[in-house]
Amino acid sequence: xxxxxxxxxxxxxxxxxxxRDAIRxxxxxxxxxxxxxxxxxxxxxxxDAEEMMLCPYTxxxxxxxxxxxxxxxxxxxxxxxxxxxxxxDAVRVSRASLIPNVVERPEEVIGHxxxxxxxxxxxxxxxxxxxxxVEAGIxxxxxxxxxxxxxxxxxxxxWVKQGKAIMSSSSMRYSKxxxxxxxxxxxxxxxxxxxxxxxxxxxxxxxxxxxxxYPIFGAGFLSVRNTGTFERNIVHLKHAYxxxxxxxxxxxxxxxxxxxxxxxxxxxxxxxxxxxxxSFKAQLQAFVDYVRTGVRPYSFDETIELMKMIIAGIIxxxxxxxxxxxxxxxxxx
Length: 333
Known about the structure:
The protein is α/β, with parallel strands linked by helices and 333 residues long. It has helices at 36-45, 49-52, 59-65, 69-72, 87-96, 126-135, 150-161, 179-183, 202-217, 276-293, 300-318; strands at residues 23-28, 77-83, 101-102, 115-118, 140-143, 166-169, 191-199, 221-226, 232-239, 244-250, 259-264, 268-272, 324-325. The strands form 2 sheets. Strands 12-11-7-10-9-8-13 form a 7-stranded mixed β-sheet, with helices on one face. A 6-stranded parallel β-sheet has the order 3-2-1-4-5-6, with helices on both faces.
């Protein structure tokens, strides 16, 4: 059975739902500037406090330490295998996040796990990092962004059409601070303008900004214009709803990550993102539930539209700020 990529069809058919008490996950890949294998594995397994203090990403042990041990972990999921690009990283993560098996090649986990997590945020690498597992019929969670170019987005879309179980998101989709406005922003009237901020590059972190606002506005983004530079992206997005959204991805803007502003005809809101742990846990829980039930938490159509927005932002910047319409980018209906 082929999965229809629509809001109405949300059941994955690439692999049957997993009935095992604890879903076995493999954590695969680690690139500079991204410590997800430490934190995501700890959220499933717990962690060794002394070893975690050696984590080079100091924010990770800081926010893990704030969580009560009895509510830290996702129930029914365990990271059993790890592979990283630098083998020394895998050993360090395995000690900190209590992962029993370190493998020399990522493909070695096939047959030993129920699903894999590709924990890297370079979209142009994701097709090849995922290919072996997709072809083996193993559910895959791909860190944001799924893809940053048209050809790879087409590949992922074709895989999903074939019924392969693939899910990707930014953790910002699950921000508890933004959640009330995803349920309803009616008290603000018609939203005419919104803004959202993120550090780092558009290619790697622009999706954090976009997926912060996407669940508020929903499908219907029309065009993207990036008048910035590689280090400082100023991105103007138009939505069919009639709203203008500005997303800023500035390389060193670490002190202003996840600042959401909503400006409406009847009111306004300013909401800062704060709880990284909550978002990560909710994101991983959504994937675990997907593996267990076969039911998508949201349509893959949303991921396609979001990736088109990322790609359009890159094209626009490279073409001196030209307004790029999402209809220019395949796949198209």
